[in-house]
Write a structure and sequence with these properties.
Layout lengths: L2 H26 L2 H9 L1 E2 L12 E5 L3 H11 L4 E5 L2 E5 L3 E8 L2 E8 H7 L1 H4 L23
Antiparallel strand pairs: 1-2, 2-6, 3-4, 4-5, 5-6
Length: about 140
């Protein structure tokens, strides 16, 4: 057989491997949201009302252990703990781990929804950073003046 044939077969195999790799990557999920989905039990009946992006999961482990497992795998930008639970903030998501029966309930949601819902707990702690200086009055030199 001609070498061009083998190059065509190798190219097709490479494209197929790339497609399989991409499907695997995106189907398993990345980040804290994917990690929680793959490692804890989905509990749709515990989803918080009024937030379609919220997903609830359960674990038989205590909240401190669950939060340690999650934050060991995906380092949060900010973390806060009080008597009500453990609040982990990531760039786009938040993970809230609370006691539930003999274990934990884990809520994964958009960070902005979490901030609004749990402001009384994390309001002075999480803080927000902006790469464009939007949290700073005037947004930088010459802007908004």
């Amino acid at each position: 057989m001609k070498p061009k044939f083998w190059f065509a077969i190798a190219g097709a195999a490479a494209v197929l491997a790339l497609i399989v790799g991409m499907v695997t990557l995106f189907s398993t999920g990345t980040g804290p949201r994917g990690y929680v989905a793959n490692n804890y039990t989905r509990a749709a009946h515990l989803d918080l009302p009024g937030d379609s992006d919220n997903r609830a999961y359960t674990s038989p482990l205590p909240p401190t252990t669950v939060a340690f497992q999650i934050s060991s795998k995906w380092r949060p930008q900010s973390q806060y703990t009080d008597s009500s639970g453990i609040y982990l903030r990531y760039s786009g998501d938040a993970v809230v781990v609370k006691p539930h029966q003999q274990g934990s309930v884990i809520h994964v949601m958009d960070a902005h929804h979490a901030y609004r819902r749990y402001h009384s707990h994390v309001g002075g702690v999480w803080g927000w950073s902006s790469p464009h200086g939007e949290s700073f009055r005037g947004r930088g030199p010459g802007a908004g003046k």
